[in-house]
Amino acid sequence: MRWALAIVGCAVLVAAAIYLGAWASPPQNDQQAVARLLYLHVPVAVNTLLAFTVAAVASLLVLWRKSDGADRLARAAAGVGLLMGTLMLASGALWARLAWGHWWDFKSPRLMLSLVLWILFVAYFVLRASLSAGQRQKRVAAAYCLVAYLDVPLVYLSTRLLTSDIHSPSVAALDARPPGLWAALPVALAATTAVAAALLAAGLRGTRRNDAQAART
Amino acid sequence: MAVLALVLVTVFGLMTDPQVRGSSELASGVMWLAFVFAGLLAVERAFASEKDSRTLPGLLVAPIPRQTVFTAKCLSSVTLLLVVQAFTVPIALALFEFSLSGPPLPLLAVLLLGDAALVILGTLTSAMVAPTRACGPLLAVLVLPLLIPVLLVTTACTGELAAIGWTDRAGHLLLLLVVFDAVFGAAAYLLFPYVIES
């Protein structure tokens, strides 16, 4: 029943976000049509960072309290973060191609930050997969997650200092916003966050079941 | 290790267009890539050799704090890396056809600070993956993304020092490297006891 309610709630929010983002704000030129990607890109980017933060806090609890629940939370949050990060990179690259004419720019701090964040999530799962299950696996994964979390602001700082960003900051693109943006963006953000939270809950349930199964065998 | 670094620098030198070979950015990028691979070998051996000779349990029951083991491993790897660099840097400078402008002291500082960050993150990650079978490639996958900010700064700083000499920008970058070393050093020092096999 709770799951049914969650699914219906997410579906309503997503439908509202799609309606507001794609139809309620009519485009007047090409750039404004492209700007609709923001309704996907910004919320998934926010949720990527959010998921990584949850994973880092949970990792801290793994080391501090030796909690198995925190390890499951870290694993589930990293999974959600990886999914959101993939959507962020895909929507961002598409937007870059349409708005700036190229898929990628190595000199942009924001782009480097997103890419490194995504690679770190992948590396986190590679590390987990290559260690044998047990308390040590949990501790090592948590330690890596924390170092990776420390790394992210440093990536941004170093790219920011080394390059002059040739692109206008993303927020400037909001100037070309279609009417209705200020309604559409919060709704899209709420919808994406609700989906991410539901996925996190589902992921937690899945990892709990897996762990119970592993303990039985 | 030294041979690997030399081979890498030579191959990269041969592969690049002679017209761009004089570029200090290219040379410093190639040099740092060679150092990273040499450094990875050093930090991998730091725990792999303990595993091969089954001395890790002995090291862990020794009446010293785990952090001392970490510091010692870092110091030995940095020393190895510095020896490698003593050979590689002059050869890379010669192959990429540019002379060092300005005093060599800041360049030494960049090398030392860059090596420190490389070895700190490398040693922590090496301790993480030591019990696994294919720990070499895994180590590279885990540590290279973590090293991105360090490599961006060391490459830019080495290029700047080699091409122009001491500038304000080089000073800022050097300061940033000190910050990186402090952050990663403190984190790795605190986390090492959790990741070492017990």
Stretches with pLDDT under 50, minimum 5 residues of chain B: none
Largest interface, by Cβ-Cβ below 8 angstroms: which chains and how many residues each? A-B, 29 and 31 residues
How confident overall, as mean pLDDT of chain A? 83
Number of helices of chain A: 7
How many domain regions of chain A?
Answer: 1
Overall strand count of chain B: 0
Shape of chain A: flat
Q: How many strands in all of chain A?
A: 0
For the terminal residues of chain B, how far apart are their CA atoms? 29 Å
What attributes characterize this protein structure?
heterodimer; A: 217 residues; mainly alpha; 7 helices; B: 198 residues; globular
TL;DR?
The complex is a heterodimer of chains A (217) and B (198). By secondary structure, chain A is mainly α.
Folded structure, characterized:
The complex is a heterodimer of chains A (217) and B (198). Chain A is mainly α. Chain A is 81% helix and 0% strand. In chain A, helix 3 runs parallel beside helix 7. The model of chain A has no long low-confidence stretch (mean pLDDT 83). The mean pLDDT of chain B is 87. Chain B has one domain. The two termini of chain B are 29 Å apart. Chain B is globular and about 55 Å long. Chains A and B meet through helix 5 and helix 6 of A and helix 6, helix 7 and helix 8 of B.
Write the layout of secondary structure elements.
The complex is a heterodimer of chains A (217) and B (198).
Chain A: H1 2-24, H2 30-35, H3 38-65, H4 68-100, H5 109-130, H6 135-162, H7 181-216
Helix pairs in contact in A: 1-7, 3-4, 3-6, 3-7, 4-5, 4-7, 5-6
Chain B: H1 2-15, H2 18-21, H3 24-52, H4 56-61, H5 66-95, H6 105-129, H7 135-163, H8 168-195
Helix pairs in contact in B: 1-3, 1-5, 3-5, 3-6, 3-7, 5-6, 5-8, 6-7, 6-8, 7-8
